[in-house]
Automatic annotation (TrEMBL):
UniProtKB keywords: Cell membrane, Heme, Iron, Membrane, Metal-binding, Repeat, Signal
Protein name: C-type cytochrome
Cell membrane keyword on record: yes
Residue intervals of the Cytochrome c domain: 53-155, 192-299, 313-403
Taxonomic lineage: Bacteria, Pseudomonadati, Pseudomonadota, Gammaproteobacteria, Lysobacterales
Pfam families linked: Cytochrom_C
Amino acid sequence: MRLRRVLAVVALVLLPFVLAAAAILGVLFARQGGFEPYRVPHGAGRTVPSDAATLARGEYLARLGNCTACHTVRGGAPLAGGRAFATGIGTIYSTNLTPDPQHGIGDWSAEEFAHVMRHGVSRRGVLYPVFPYAHFANVADQDLDALYAWLRAQPASDFVPPPNRMEPPADSRLALIGWRMLYFRPDEAAAKPDDRGRYLVDGLGHCAMCHSTRGERGSLPPEGYMAGGSIPGIGWYAPPLDSVQLQRYSDEQLADYLRNGSSEHGSAYGPMAEVVYSSLRWLTPDDALAMARHLKRSAPRLARAEVPVAQAAAEGKGADVYARACADCHGKNGEGEPGAYPALRDAVAVTAPDPINAVRMVLYGGMPVTTAGNPQPHSMPPFVQQLDSGEIAAVVNHIRRSWGGRDSRLTAEDVDAMHGIVID
Ligand code: HEC
Ligand code: HEC
Ligand code: HEC
């Protein structure tokens, strides 16, 4: 009797907490989209046009979305998946998008495809956000149909990508519902196709995926939008695309940079070179200009710490290494050689908050992408064998202090550590 009464009292006391917890979970669940994302449509669907014009549009859109680059392993069948993405908590492999009915998306309807692109949930369950569905959610129906038609017209492959290797609890697709509740907010105000620049930048172009500062557990909070970010797993830094960074470019110069991978302010390298090569070089001049205008118009105004340029940088070991190994190409005062070697004065790697790109360039050198607008790029040799880690730290400190406004204090150990995390 007494026990029952005690239990009743305990239950009464706990009830408000249980209700409050349920209410919070309910709100979080509603904010990630409610039940809708989990109702994946199956079975036969409507017929989608697949005439030559639709296929050509689908191919163009697939290039903008960079589907093939992410869904193809080096040397493997195009779109058959298997490319590995290293994250802090394991490795995810892209899937087979070819029309193979068993291993690809051969038996998907247009509705199912559109659902997966919009909501990031497929018949396999909730997808990892390495697949940029948060960005693809704004893609218009007509464009999704064209993408679908184009994918269905590609050669089928029965390749089976390796299974993901994630650490618990992230290895469970159910746990991803929890992640979505905490971090994923479908963007209701997503760009409409008539705002072409924004539609491409925030949509298929998924620029913010690399250029934003990530929050906890790989999330992309709104305040980090285009604020610059370290790219998980591969040791590169994507600079902020804010008003300070982009003011160096006119609209036309920025459009040219996107299509050609080069400009008088430097060329695209690392992951950005890949984006130019497999995606942006296919942009029509109109689309490139629309994207450039949008990027400049909406560039966030981020507070930047002003670091006084160190006068002392002109002397010392870093300056000696620079004069010996770098000045021939980049000029005595970092002015570069127009059309051949980039100026270091306003170069991304020199001004970026994170020194990793500069260290990487010196270690491994670089070769800009060959594009129609930059048919014979000049390259930078690797210095990994020529300079020791102390010399590399000194020369990177020198260029960043002299011309980047960065109080750079790298040591030989820092350079060794960066050497260690770099993955091709
Ligand atoms: C940044 C790399 C990246 C890009 C770009 C990308 N994908 Fe993916 N995609 C992935 C990864 C990784 C997965 C697997 C996610 C998982 O297993 O949870 C995936 C999964 C998918 C799926 C789910 C497949 C299934 O069987 O569940 C579809 C559909 C898809 N992508 C289509 C596309 C299309 C279409 C494009 C281009 C418009 C595209 N992806 C661009 C990386 C990418
Ligand atoms: C896979 C990651 C990744 C994606 C996706 C990506 N970028 Fe980049 N981007 C980088 C990295 C890394 C750099 C720094 C290296 C360099 O300057 O080439 C960079 C550099 C740039 C620069 C040079 C900035 C400057 O100050 O000169 C611009 C402009 C740029 N990206 C625009 C874009 C746009 C627009 C998109 C979307 C269409 C995009 N990026 C998508 C990784 C990425
Ligand atoms: C033979 C000519 C040459 C020499 C020598 C050379 N570079 Fe470069 N450097 C280049 C070229 C070309 C690029 C553009 C490479 C690319 O985009 O892939 C470049 C790019 C860079 C960048 C990236 C610029 C950006 O846009 O962010 C940095 C930093 C850099 N070099 C520093 C150095 C330093 C430090 C040295 C000396 C240790 C050096 N370079 C020696 C030709 C050279």
